[in-house]
Design a protein that fits this description.
Distance between the termini: 8 Å
Helix content: 40-55%
Bound molecules: magnesium ion
CATH architecture of the largest domain: 3-Layer(aba) Sandwich
CATH topology of the largest domain: Rossmann fold
Length: about 210
């Protein structure tokens, strides 16, 4: 029985077609290349070789490449105004409000990003908690400690909380601890994903009736 809903933020509560997260990815690539003093192509390669051991680029850069200035990193990849191209979809707000379960957000981004996005999407007042990356001690999904920390705060077991994210590895991380997880795959990028997968957040309803 699902008694809490836990949502990712980016490309989950708004459409990936806005390209906002893609732009974040480009800024991460630029920052990493500049920080390491290598080309962007080399930065991509080096990240690809190591990111599987971490939840986020920041964790990798801190653990292996000596990065300590977290605020500078976040200012570079989440500049003010990053949300400009985003527009609210009132249907999403109405849909979320129509679901009786309480709702929270778990994001690998910092709070300043989460707040900008939620305000721009006009989704204020819907979520009981916004668990951001600093709250999680800079540890990101899909590490299991992250999920357990959230569950403990919500006072729920993994089976009671339905988690929705657009990253297969993050959903898998939650399934691995016994949780209920659904992949939101708006663009049908993960057709070989072996577990529950939806194309739109509005399909969630069928998992909540029973
Ligand atoms: Mg996402």
């Amino acid at each position: 029985m699902v008694s809490y809903l836990l949502f990712d933020l980016d490309n989950t509560l708004y459409s990936s077609s806005f390209g906002l997260e893609k732009a974040v990815g480009e800024r991460i690539r630029k920052f990493t290349a500049q920080y390491l003093g290598i080309s962007e192509a080399e930065a991509v390669q080096r990240r690809q070789a190591r990111i599987a051991f971490y939840g986020t680029t920041l964790e990798w850069l801190m653990a292996e490449e000596g990065l300590t200035d977290v605020d500078t990193y976040y200012r570079a990849i989440h500049p003010a105004g990053e949300e400009e191209g985003l527009y609210p979809d009132p249907k999403v707000r109405d849909f979320l409000l129509s679901l009786k379960q309480p709702k929270a957000i778990l994001t690998n981004s910092p709070m300043e990003h989460a707040e900008r996005i939620i305000n721009k999407l006009e989704l204020q007042g819907i979520f009981t908690h916004i668990f951001d990356i600093r709250w999680n001690g800079l540890q990101g999904k899909p590490q299991k400690e992250v999920f357990f920390r959230v569950l403990k705060t919500l006072g729920k077991s993994p089976q009671e909380v339905l988690f929705v994210d657009d990253y297969p590895s993050y959903v898998q991380g939650y399934l691995d601890i016994g949780g209920q997880g659904i992949l939101l795959d708006e663009e049908n990028l993960h057709q070989d994903y072996p577990h529950e997968r939806i194309n739109s957040i509005f399909e969630l309803k069928k998992y909540l009736e029973a």
